[in-house]
Structures are given as C-alpha cells and as structure tokens.
Amino acid sequence: MGLFNKKEDKDQKEIASYQENTKDYNNLAFDIEFNEEHVTHFKPLSYDEIKPIVDCLLKFKNVTVNLNEISKEDKLRLIDFLTGAMYALEGNYKKIDKGIYYFWIG
C-alpha cells in the first residue's frame, strides 16, 4: 500500500508542476486569431486532400497549393475542382511557378 502511494504522489506532483510551467504555452495556440491576410500553403499527395484546401480557402480567403508531388491525373482533377470553386466563390487564381498556384477569394 505505501509503496504505490508514494510513487503516485510523486507522479502527481511532477504532472502538476509540468502543467503549471507550460500553462501559458499551451494556451498560446488557442489565443492566436488569424486575420484574413493569412495564407495557408498545401502540398497535396492525392486528390483526396482537396477538402482541407477548400476549407482553408473559405476561412482565410487565400491558399497556395504546390502540386509538384501529385500524379498528373489527380493534378488535373484538383485544378479543375479549385478553378470551379473560384468561379462559384467569385475568386481567382494565378500560377506562380511550375506546379504552384495561388488561389484567393476577393
């Protein structure tokens, strides 16, 4: 009985100390609010990764997408989908470099 209680007490104190020392850092990420100027960069590996790209586009109004690591077929599907989204959302896009595109809602 006494053997385990001492270890548990020590562990609880260490955990409490760690939580107290890192409290400010843990809350920092939640206190930061992004403004509409925030740009999010994506490097999808397949067409299945389209949803987070469009979600960020809706939230932050602009994204940069690097399509250099994706298959040609998925690349065409992704570009078609995103250009369709730009049309529906009255946005626009620009090719920045080979396989890199910037999309924005304006």
Describe what is shown at a glance:
This protein is of the alpha+beta class and 106 residues long. It is built from three helices and four strands; from the N terminus they run αβαβαββ.
Name the features.
single chain; 3 helices; 2 domains; Translation Initiation Factor IF3; 20% strand; alpha+beta; 106 residues
Write the layout of secondary structure elements.
Blueprint: H1 2-31, E1 40-42, H2 50-60, E2 62-66, H3 72-88, E3 91-97, E4 100-105
Parallel strand pairs: 1-2
Antiparallel strand pairs: 2-4, 3-4
Protein name: Cell division inhibitor SepF
Function: Cell division protein that is part of the divisome complex and is recruited early to the Z-ring. Probably stimulates Z-ring formation, perhaps through the cross-linking of FtsZ protofilaments. Its function overlaps with FtsA.
Organism: Spiroplasma chinense
